[in-house]
Amino acid sequence: MQFFKDNVIRDVMYAVDEDGHYTTVLSDGWSVKNDALNAVWDDIREQCEVIRQQVLTKEVSPLAYHMKKSLLEIGMLSSYAEIPKRKIRKHLKYDEFMKLENETLQKYADAMRITVEELKCVDEWR
Known about the structure:
Layout: E1 4-5, E2 8-9, E3 12-16, E4 22-26, H1 31-56, H2 62-69, H3 74-81, H4 85-91, H5 94-98, H6 102-112, H7 116-120
Antiparallel strand pairs: 1-2, 3-4
Helix pairs in contact: 1-2
């Protein structure tokens, strides 16, 4: 089943089929819900672009960009990556992030379900 098609969020719903049995079907979407979600994602993309520019000027590390893109706060990332919060705060600094060993980078990448190479990059989000 495809839940997202042509910028429309479709929900799984239950309906009765020809034989009187309950079955799952996809909704046609709800414009108010879709408009609200699109507005939220547009805002997140704008915030990511601001952070991406900060990474390019070495004000923050790529970790900050990917945390925003993945909708992760420090506490949540700490739990997923099993890295203390204080270290994550330190790794949000560009110079500190660039010193990280591959093992730590891999923990972050795994937590965000991206590769280490993707973690190091801040390509424009489309």
